[in-house]
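Today's session is about reading a structure prediction critically. Students often jump straight to the picture, but the first step is always the sequence itself: look for stretches that repeat, for charged clusters, for runs of hydrophobic residues. Only then move on to the predicted structure, which in these notes is written as discrete structure tokens rather than atom positions. Here is the chain we will use throughout the hour.
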Amino acid sequence: MTQQISVGLIGAGSMGGALLGGWIEKGVIDRRASAVFDPAPGEAAIMSGVRLNPPVEGLAVDAVVAAIKPQSADDVLPAFAAMATSALLVSVMAGFSVASIAALLPPSTRIIRAMPNLPAAIGAGVTALYAPPGLSSGDRACAEALMRAVGDVVWVGAEHEIDIVTAVSGSGPAYFFLLAEALAEAARAAGLDDASSKTLARATLAGAGAFVKSDARPLADLRRAVTSPGGTTAAALNILDGDSKALRSLINAAVEAARMRAKALTH
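Below is the predicted structure for this chain, in token form.
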């Protein structure tokens, strides 16, 4: 999609601000035809050149992006009903279903759900998108262009799969942060000083992520490339994921627990 998109961004907090920054950096949106709605916009929104809190009446945009807390939706979204009538609504509200959004807006509203993750704040995120049946290829292209401004995009075919995405990529950064935290603790326990332990763990996490991004080989091939038979890495991996597949069992259980919690929180 090469044509610039006019957007009404509802909420310019952490995620909304990240989206706005990505759109501007990548030239995705038409700033003169777009608007940001936030009662306390941050400096990034103020300096963006996009109109702040203009009257909603008579404002027509290509897409309305709802980047507000789900618990605020009942109070906030109805105020934008007129604008959403003719626009695509892209929701980045976690745990708020298409049906719940539709109940707050005119019946003709076209809705796509988006589930980005924390690294979107630095343009390195991944977003899952779900479009209900009947939405046009143009609507899908619009939502994809908006979310590609902050990272990769994948489409899921059923709304319940958003819960799986939440468990994998939404919560996923914390899993890797925990592994790096544990690695730093192990380095300290083995005798390194605190500063060196933290630096080594953080740099290893960041470097491994950058390497995965740059090398399209299967993850198993990348793992094997670091693992010499009988070497130090093989010794460590045998503890983490040997015959018992301990690490894989833990990850499966963790993702399932997160998925079930996401399902319970969705309404």
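Discussion point for the tutorial: The chain has two domains: 7-160, 172-265.
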